[in-house]
Amino acid sequence: AADVFMWRNKHISAGVLGGATAIWILFELLGYHLLAFLGHALIFSLGVLFLWSNASSFINKSPPKIPEVIIPEDLVVNIALSTRHEINRAFANLRQIALGRDIKKFLIVIAGLWLLSILGSCCNFLTLFYIVFVVLHTVPVIYEKYEDQIDTYGEKGWIEVKKQYAVFDAKVLSKVPRGPLKDKKN
């Protein structure tokens, strides 16, 4: 996956990006729906396989070899357990934020959700997913090519963010009253 994102093999990377663009055009610009697409693809595939299986005796060809697909139980259990673990971790983080113990994390989450709501009002999920996909295919290559210049601007930007946060902390956050801290019993 890293080689695809870093364009080590230009043909594969271009094929992946072109495929994603074709899917986006199919669903977004032409208004085709995923469920209808899956249904039509399955109808077409099953029709071709059915005709091939029945016509194979007439044209003296072997029928198609269709493998039996069985999903192993341990794979499904492992996926479910890891998904459950990640969801529980997310709930624990949200609980910590909601309890008001870390105002910096609270403000970051609120800003992120606000930006996400703005993005969501501008475009639908498929377009947003496509934009993220294209960004993931272009930003690593650009960063690798212009790493020194980007790092210089990044350091300057980070210093400015720290300055602005210090001002915000001094003028706003320091004036927010905090409740009394409860002592832990040993």
From TrEMBL:
Q: Where in the cell is it found?
A: Endoplasmic reticulum membrane
Output the PROSITE patterns linked to this UniProt entry.
RETICULON (PS50845)
For this protein, the record's Pfam families field holds: Reticulon
Where does the Reticulon domain lie? Answer: 1-186
An example of a Gene Ontology cellular component annotation for this protein is:
endoplasmic reticulum membrane
- Record keywords: Methyltransferase included? no
Zinc in keyword set: no
According to UniProt, the name of this protein is Reticulon-like protein
